[in-house]
Model the fold of this input.
Amino acid sequence: MSPSTENPAASLDDVLVGEAVLGVYRQMFAALARDSGAVVDDPELVDVAETLLAAFADAGEDGLSREQMRYVCRRYPAEVFDNRLRVLKGLGAVREVFPKPNQLRYRASFTSVVGLMFVRRMMLDGGQSEMHRLLALEQLNVADPRMTPEQARDGADGLARAFRLWSVELVTLANGTIEELREQAPKLWGTEEILLRAERLHGAILRRWPQLDRTCTDLRAAIYAYGDASRRAAARLSDSAGTTRNLTLLPPETWRTFTRTASREDLAAVLDGFVFDAAAPWHEPSAVVTAVEDGPRATPS
Done:
């Protein structure tokens, strides 16, 4: 068998599809690129890209000229601005309004804005919100009558891969230093809700496509591995909170039990010298105000 038979040359359509995929990748992460082959090593470089993308959004369909872009980024050094603009143009995040020589006006890629929003969310909670969105989207897809078994298999395989990698990362954190575990604590938020959503999705796929039982078995194993790893990491984090007096790491249930059973002196001794906020905004401010106003008040004797 000749080499050409074993490895047929890619068709023009294959090349175009590949270039389209690479183009989306480039635009998605252009804001994080230091040059065409490396990521940024200074947070200020991401700020320049974000400033430019926000200015393009305000400018509308007319876009911006190079002078207008420089004015928007005037607080950054000229060489930093020139570097960011060169990289953003090279990766397709900033393009000419019309592809012709000596173009004076430019527009920004919607894909690059979405990519930067994705990165910002990842920075806030380590991917928790993205997993919630992904599970919700897959649940909608499974309910869509147009969805095929092949698409369902691809979605389940992707989720299983994500849960397996996530569980490996959590196991590594649980076995590592407590300082790193505390730093990565947002990755443990909302674990039970994620598990519940994932198990519901697993059941929905299996009920609609029983022939995907092997795929669903892999997904279920990955979900359970994630659940075990997250509980293990959370247990170590909770134990550390008790031994280090890092009060902000204690769950709300522990606080409620302690405040109901402790004497005034014990509670004062624990809180003495600590000033902290709640670990997460469990209630809207308006709901707290309403609860205080509607709560029982002691009547003067």
User: Anything to note?
Assistant: DSSP finds 14 helices and five strands in the chain. The longest strand covers residues 105-108.
